[in-house]
Amino acid sequence: MTATVVAALLWLTFVKATPIVYAALGGVVSERSGVVNVGLEGMMTIGAFSAVAVSRATGDPWIGLVAGVVAGALAGAVLGWAATRWKVDQIVAGMGINLVCAGAAAYGLVLLYGQPGASPQVPSLGEAYRVLVWFALVLAIAFQWWLHRTVAGLRVRACGENPHAVAAAGFDPLGVRLQMVTWSGALAGLGGAFLSIGEVNLFSDGMTAGRGFIALAAVIFGRWTPLGAAAAAVAFGFFEALQFVVQGRVPWLSANLVQAAPYVAALIALAGATGRVRPPAADGVPY
Amino acid sequence: MRLRVLTGPLGAVAIVVVLGSATMLAAGVSPIVGFAALVGGALGGRQQIAETLVQTTALLFPALGICLAFRGGLFNIGAEGQLLAGGLCAAAAGIHAFAPAPLEIAAVLCAGALGGAAWGAIAGMMKARLQASEIISTLMLNFVALFAAQYLVNGPLRAPHAAGPETAALAPQAVLPVLIPQTRLTIALPLAVLLAIVLQFVLSRTTYGFALRALGDAPEAARRNGIAVARTTWTALALSGACAGLGGAAIVMGELHRFNTQLSPGYGFIAIAVALVGDLQPLWVCLSALAFGMLQSGGLAMQAIAQVPKDAIGVIEGVIVLVLAARRYIVTKKEIAAA
């Protein structure tokens, strides 16, 4: 009995962590290149919605998954463009992206299905969603290697530390940043698509529920490294999984309070981590 | 200077026209019909104008808070949570009748401001003492506020015989007096404008305002010149939260007469757009809030009459934020180049 509960909790932890891991990896590549991506939440939302819309239109959830990634990448490219070409305030622009994406998804719901709140059920990935859970962990390891052991990764990190040096070496820091924010959006879109056609088979308003923001906390707690951020995301996933295990077993504990657990955990992690960790020197500074 | 105040609003109007037309066409509605419904819904009659001003009030309080924090270089993105905290505290105080009307109203408004201030001060303390990014802490606190409020209206604060999760109705003397009979427009609007005047004065004419602006424009210079960075930081976030909290209290005391967690359709986030269009200057923010109030109340009519989903308004507001995010930085850079 206890063993099965522990096993279920462990698996659920990884499932709940998966969208946060993808978004957090997106946050890492973006911030290491020098752009703070507060728009992760919106990029997840638009990814989740596009995956559902295309999956329903084509009947193939895998095409839906690709659509989710592309939609996230587009939103990322918009932020990247604004951050590199217009030199916007990245935090404010990211919040703008969040408003646009949430509005666009809600607008699309009414336009496509004539109903606010939630989409009809669509073809989902079914059991294949497990592949995406493992892929998230593989991706974290791959990004760790890429960012720290390859020349391209070094260039990305240099853009986040000292873009002027990158320019002096003959490379274009703005191009690198634009690319990285676009990838960041693609990863967030993948996380969103996992939520809508991986874990369930529909899109509902507000289904990302702040996971993109939790991913930002995971980036800090993970010291801006892919593996660290993924590990932090798994820790936050644990608190999310906990509510499904606790529910019904501990009657005196309010469901609402348990729901708040991942956010409180992120707050405490943030308070504990900062001061001891250092962001990339040019993180959030327009070049 | 004059031009700078104008570029924001003009850009915003252009975005509303272009993007509004696009979303209306996508929904298969002629932009003329759509905008007619939008304007009619915002200004079509006494009731509509009153509702526009109600929305203006709800946006103005959190926008003033954001204005204050942003001027100090503090990204308070937690106005939504602070508004909820303020509304909840106001309701918790206002369900008891404990004083004659003017006193009770003042006390309940204070409770709302304190609730918002407390919520803002958490992020402020984390920033001042631990250098924890206020961006993420305020974002997280939004969700904590929402779930905590849901817990309270489902449990301890739930009205005994309520149909849904909400608190009991306010005591009659805690309800704000109505300005125009048979509408929901209350004295909260003049209070919000008064707050804007006070904030404009504080920002431009007081030592505290100077310290805050110095912190926003040149943090290193501020620190080296002996400005108390930690104290200015946490008090600014607390004051910012107090403004948003007053907004929550105004909604509870003027519109709903009780608290439930659906009281805000994202006012705290839309208020970012309001503050930016108003160039982070409290008095201009009043006009900006009026414009966004028209969008909010007109959006509902647009949906009902012209069948354009009201969420199109959200897209428009987001694009305004995105485009105006460029402005302040560019302006600062130009001013530095000119100096």
Jot down its keywords.
heterodimer; A: 287 residues; mainly alpha; ABC transporter involved in vitamin B12 uptake, BtuC; 12 helices; globular; B: 339 residues
Describe the structure.
- The complex is a heterodimer of chains A (287) and B (339).
- By secondary structure, chain A is mainly alpha-helical.
- Chain A has a single domain (2-273), classed as ABC transporter involved in vitamin B12 uptake, BtuC (Orthogonal Bundle), CATH 1.10.3470.
- Chain A has helices spanning 2-32, 40-58, 61-85, 90-113, 129-149, 151-161, 163-168, 173-199, 211-221, 226-246, 255-259, 261-273.
- Chain A is globular.
- Chain A starts with a helix and ends in a 14-residue tail after the last helix.
- Chain B is globular and about 60 Å long.
- Mean pLDDT of chain B is 89; it is low at 333-339.
- With 339 residues, chain B is mostly helical.
- Chain B has one domain: ABC transporter involved in vitamin B12 uptake, BtuC, CATH 1.10.3470.
- Chain B has helices spanning 2-26, 31-43, 46-71, 79-94, 101-130, 134-154, 188-205, 207-217, 219-224, 229-256, 267-277, 282-306, 311-338.
- In chain B, helix 1 (2-26) packs across helix 2 (31-43) and helix 4 (79-94) packs parallel to helix 6.
- At the A-B interface, helix 4, helix 9, helix 11 and helix 12 of A face helix 6, helix 11 and helix 13 of B.
